[in-house]
Amino acid sequence: MARQSIVFDKFSKIETLIFDVDGVWTDGSLQVTESGELLRTMNSKDGYAGRRAVLAGYNMIIISGGHSKGVEDRLTKLGMKEVHISIRDKMQLFSEMVESGKLDPETTLYMGDDLPDCKVLKAVYLSCCPKDAVPEIIDTCEYVSPYEGGRGCVRDVIERVMRSQNKW
Questions:
Q1: How many Å apart are CA 143 and CA 158, to the nearest integer?
Q2: Residues whose CB falls within 8 Å of the CB of residue 6, separated by 6 or more in sequence, listed in order
Q3: For the whole prediction, is pTM greater than 0.85?
């Protein structure tokens, strides 16, 4: 119980929230059209919380290994200025953002669900994942959302951050 309360205290120090897309903003499933296009489903409640976080002044960043113009457009329309897709080395991009002053790891939360997220999860102040993340990621993270990817985990962490700072 003490560990859990320490983690919840960490939400109050967050200024930057970084999210993976597939398995976090989406449930990780892909629909493949006859033309080979990949379609993803996103939760509108996660989008609502993301928009509120942007309007409240949080630094919202997306780092995804996947490529989807539709996902990029959706997140940009929510007001996110840093939407990075088709990123093969997430840690390299994260390090570049730290070096350029775009973020401070000591006030940053990262939410990921699979092995490509592991290095960044270990480099941030608060590591988070959805409850259906792969076991290695669950073992790495300080906070495991009670919600699955694409099913409210994004809103869960955004709301925890904002509530802890009386901004919700």
A1: 13
A2: none
A3: yes
